[in-house]
Amino acid sequence: QERYDAAAIEERWQQQWDEQQSFAVTEDSARQKYYLLEMFPYPSGRIHMGHVRNYSIGDVVARFKRMQGFNVLHPMGWDAFGMPAENAAIQHGTHPAKWTYENIAHMRSQLKKMGFAYDWQREFATCDVDYYRWEQLIFLKMYEKGLTYKKSSFVNWCEPCQTVLANEQVEDGRCWRCDCEVEQKELEQWFFKITDYAQELLDETYNLSGWPDPVLTMQRNWIGRSTGCEIDFPVDGSDNAITVFTTRQDTLFGATFMSLAPEHPMALELASAEQRSVVEAFIAKVRRQDKTKRASGDYEKEGVFTGAFCINPVTLQRIPVYLANFVLMDYGTGAVMAVPTHDQRDFEFAGKYDIPLQVVIQPEGEAFDPATMTEAWTGPGVMVNSAQFDGLDNEAAKEKIADYLEQEGIGRKTVNFRLRDWGVSRQRYWGTPIPILYCDVCGAVPVPEDQLPVVLPQDVSVSGEGGSPLARHEAFLYTDCPQCGGKARRETDTFDTFVESSWYFARYACPQFSDGPIDRSAADYWLPIDQYIGGIEHAVMHLLYARFFTKVLRDLDMMTVDEPFTNLLTQGMVCMETRSCPEHGWLFPEEEVDGCCSKCGQKVILGRNEKMSKSKKNVVDPDQLINRYGADTARLFSLFAAPPEKDLEWNEQGVEGCYRFLNRVWRAVYDNFDLVSDASLQRESSDGGKALRRQTHRTIKKVTEDIDGSFHFNTAISAVMELVNAIYGFDAKEQCPGVMREALETVVLLLAPFVPHFSEELWSVLGHTGGIEQAGWPTFDPAALVEDEKTIVVQVNGKVRGKVTVPADAAEEAVQAAALAEDNVIRFIEGKTVRKVIVVPGRLVNVVVS
Ligand code: ANZ
Ligand code: ZN
């Protein structure tokens, strides 16, 4: 008997899959397609357990669907532009391209060692010119359609490093590299008009029934549709007016001051002579504050009086105009009518600056006194102090006041979205060059299509200082203006890497297509993606941008679908307990020996279960796992230990258990080999044989249902484990080799999506030459599920007194008769009167006697 040698088996099958390109697919209109995609990895260097889990989940579905006969597209590639490559360049002097492509080569070999069923012919990296050139073309088409534009906006700027920082690179307002204070600097940047699609992006969330609700909710909140009014407040002593956006026009009569964003264009012009210097100082101060923190209210709420007043258009009161740090310029109109009695933020602000209050909504039975109010009333109520609207319910008053404002010409109903246009300019080298030129005469000029691609030059040195290396690369920088022939400068910014990941899934349909970004017929065949799998951290940005791009590409007539991802699965994290030593800090698991630190012998302190991370050293290296147990065990454990959407707690015993299980299956096949290798297998069977056959078919049914659309891989694997137990429990003397063979083959087939090398190997051991996919996914025989007989418990006055075995389809009367004829039951009812017999079909008979 052969030993289970995972390494040898895995190598052999992987080589075969590679040579035969076993998972390469083409468009075939005669076959039903299934497009399965896992979020592609960033080539950071090595795969980690999160990848193993994510891609194992996807691979089960891919292989399962293939065995069911679908034409399955399951591609893999690399999200290859981005900062870490530049950081590596800065730290180690390696060129970002070299670093990236070396990482890709290594990670590709790691993925191949996991045995994932990818169509490797479709692989690409987003930093390949043949990918990003088409992204540049899409940009030009968007430019023609007015879907992209340039405007100035604020970015995080580090003066000493002369560079723009991403939000993640700003820690507590300081640069992550030099620890200097970060400023907000105004730069001209390119934007994508995602807001044009806000309504459609919102509406379609109600049709995405294959997405998890929390993700849809996050998208809806991010899009943030608010209905309300814009209202004009005339500036006292001037012809100008300040327009506010409010969702609470019912509180208009209580607006006792106005607060503007410090960036508001009227802020300086409103400042009176006495207030001018404090206003200027305040604007400068807020400019240094982080915008996201301002929005979330992390900063202390503060403001400054401008010296100006405006007129509440319904009360005709003069109200002071303030600047406030919590008002943002890029929401609504950048101006807020402040109602301290009904908005807590305004209440606190008014208290701080001694601004009068006016109550306009009163809940039933309450009488607020502004002098004694301790907080704003934000609930519903009846309108007061609001002229003709008094006495109305405040919700009704919203409608009435909105109508009134429109009639009087002092306001209008509006819809506002929290969603902002997508700023895509990054002042970085390692990204797709934005195909724009600047000419002194013609201004911003798009690069003509026939001059694409704008190739990212390789001969640069990346130091991280003094701005983008592209701005110092003369050969790249200077060119001729295609419009006037004069001198032009190239745009030196590159795209946000989220642009690449917004359409890669469409390029997988036609990765070699050379006439445009997307071969429409191929895309129409494969799209939409039937199942997308990835981390919840992408719930908003990536998934929203990808939906936006799908709609843009549709409107550019490049493809047909409205939505890219029919079903979405967000998998949980891989976690492990942390360990530390009082002296040496965090320890890798292998640095713990017999509960002690391997460096100093002190007792190791076990910590909480946390997401695996290098910084806390609670990591398992997939390579080590593969070397020790094989890829199949690694796959099996990551699928068995937890349902995909839940966090997975790593534990070594669990891995061992999976390995032992595979060995047990291996032995079951070899132990019974002689019995089942007879060609003339008979199916006729004993009772034991019938039971095993029933369990075999039940298992097929359960595993199929557990995989298909529901991802209950853990319970599917458990069911197979039980079937294996039944095989071990099956008495060979029963001599039903046909039943035994069917059970063994079923185990091997059902395990194939989970442990493909292992299953292929045993399938051939069992004498099949065609490969497991040819066998197809097993289907259950409904007749085999039916039990011939059932054992039923018999109670007398509620106490169990016996058991009877009856035909499974026996009528109630027959069951009752059998129960009353059971020997022990007869003893307990002898001499008594049977009052009632209760039959619970298929389960129980209770005889009531007295
Ligand atoms: C008056 C008012 C009274 C408001 C009241 C609220 C409560 P959503 O629902 O998120 O759209 N607002 C408007 N523009 C703003 C900006 N640029 N920065 C900060 N706050 C702004 O929020 C709309 C409300 O947010 C608006 O309604 C406005 O305050 C404030 F008792 O107007 B409200
Ligand atoms: Zn020009």
UniProtKB/TrEMBL annotation:
GO terms for biological process: leucyl-tRNA aminoacylation. Residues 220-406 form the Leucyl-tRNA synthetase editing domain. A motif ('HIGH' region) lies at residues 41-51. It comes from the Bacteria. The keyword Protein biosynthesis applies. A motif ('KMSKS' region) lies at residues 611-615. It holds the Pfam family tRNA-synt_1_2. GO terms for molecular function: aminoacyl-tRNA deacylase activity; ATP binding; leucine-tRNA ligase activity. Its EC number is 6.1.1.4. This is Leucine--tRNA ligase.
